[in-house]
Write a structure and sequence with these properties.
Elements: E1 9-12, E2 24-28, H1 30-36, E3 44-48, H2 55-63, E4 71-76, H3 78-91, E5 95-99, E6 111-116, E7 119-124, E8 130-133, H4 135-139, H5 143-146, H6 150-168, H7 180-201, H8 205-225, H9 234-247, H10 254-268, H11 274-282, H12 292-308, H13 323-333
Parallel strand pairs: 1-8, 2-3, 2-4, 4-5, 5-8
Antiparallel strand pairs: 6-7
Length: 341
């Protein structure tokens, strides 16, 4: 059976307008709840602050959901949204997501990126019942968080390169076969990110609304295709591989990982990465959060990592990265703080 997930219902309204009567489980982060918790009331049964998307941890939370809970609210960023969707799926309970930042496409997808055995493993959960967006909340968030979902759109730039690279070598599966019409649509979506990045970084609501539209278009395209190849390539694989080194069993903003990954992937494909770098920075995405040695160690191990975890075919399947090449990549991308110049 093939299921093409829809987008969740999206309500754009003040959080003070939320009226919830169902017994509620709340998943949130400390900062997010301190910021918006006083704006609306929920009939809480239980509240938790998840710190990881590790599958064993998620299963433990799911098994402990009180029976009287009739809805799960996720208030905050991408981690709490993923955890809520997973727990809701396991318990057949609807989920309402209240983003305080527009940081990931996972608010709108029907899958959850769990962490298991050192990599990302997708779980099909279906989309949330509803996503509630309050633009006053989103635009007031810190610049390094509020619009970082633009990185999900920019990952199409390099994701498409890897998808086509695999097609040219006849290495895509039948399900993930390269489709020029889909690649053209994805490229058009990605191109718009370059145009709105500065305004997103400034917190302009019109630009954030445009970003929402682009994310929804990207999600619906991958829903239709049944896979993520247009926006999942070597840039994502770098993020997956380095995350255990930097997370230390705590959640880490995905943009901190995927932004550098996009630059590295672009460099591996021989692209001019200056416009991408400028766009990431204009949108407020930090590029200086990763330790030099963590990046070098990750790059050296990355080709074997993608083969070990049987990740979709990309340029990483056909290269080796030794210490010198890792240094060169950091210099070219301007990522390594010790290797500028």
């Amino acid at each position: 059976m093939t299921i093409i997930h829809p987008l969740p219902k999206i309500d754009i309204m003040p959080l003070s307008s939320i009226r919830e009567t169902r017994p509620t489980a709340l998943l949130t982060g400390r900062t997010a709840w301190a910021t918006v918790g006083s704006m609306f009331n929920l009939p809480l049964v239980v509240q938790a602050e998840p710190h990881t998307a590790n599958r064993a941890f998620l299963d433990d939370l799911a098994s402990g959901l009180p029976e009287q809970v009739q809805v799960i609210y996720a208030v905050g960023g991408g981690l709490v949204a993923d955890v809520a969707k997973y727990i809701g799926y396991k318990n057949h309970v609807p989920v309402v997501i209240v983003p305080t930042v527009l940081s990931v496409d996972g608010f709108f997808t029907g899958i959850v990126a769990t962490r298991d055995r050192g990599t990302v493993v997708y779980q099909d959960t279906g989309p949330a019942e509803k996503v509630i967006l309050d633009w006053d909340v989103v635009r007031s968030a810190p610049a390094q968080f509020r619009g970082t979902g633009i990185a999900e759109i920019l990952s199409m730039v390099t994701g498409l390169l890897d998808w086509r690279y695999a097609a040219e070598r006849n290495r895509n599966t039948e399900l993930e076969r390269y489709q020029p019409w889909a690649a053209q649509l994805a490229a058009g979506i990605a191109q718009q990110a370059f145009k709105i990045a500065k305004a997103v970084g400034e917190g302009r609501v019109d630009a954030l609304r445009n970003l929402l539209d682009l994310i929804c278009m990207e999600v619906q395209l991958t829903n239709q295709l049944g896979h993520n190849r247009p926006q999942e390539g070597s840039e994502q694989f770098f993020a997956y591989a380095i995350e255990p080194k930097v997370a230390r069993d705590r959640g880490v903003p995905f943009a901190d990982l995927i932004g550098p990954g996009i630059l590295i992937s672009g460099a591996l494909h021989g692209q001019d990465i200056a416009p991408i770098r400028q766009t990431l920075q204009a949108a407020g995405i930090p590029l200086d959060k990763l330790n030099d040695q963590d990046m070098i160690d990750t790059l050296k191990a990355l080709p074997s990592y993608v083969r070990q975890h049987n990740l979709p075919y990309s340029i990483l399947n056909d290269i080796d990265i030794d210490e010198q090449r890792a240094y060169d990549l950091l210099r070219r991308t301007g990522l390594g703080l010790s290797f500028h110049g």
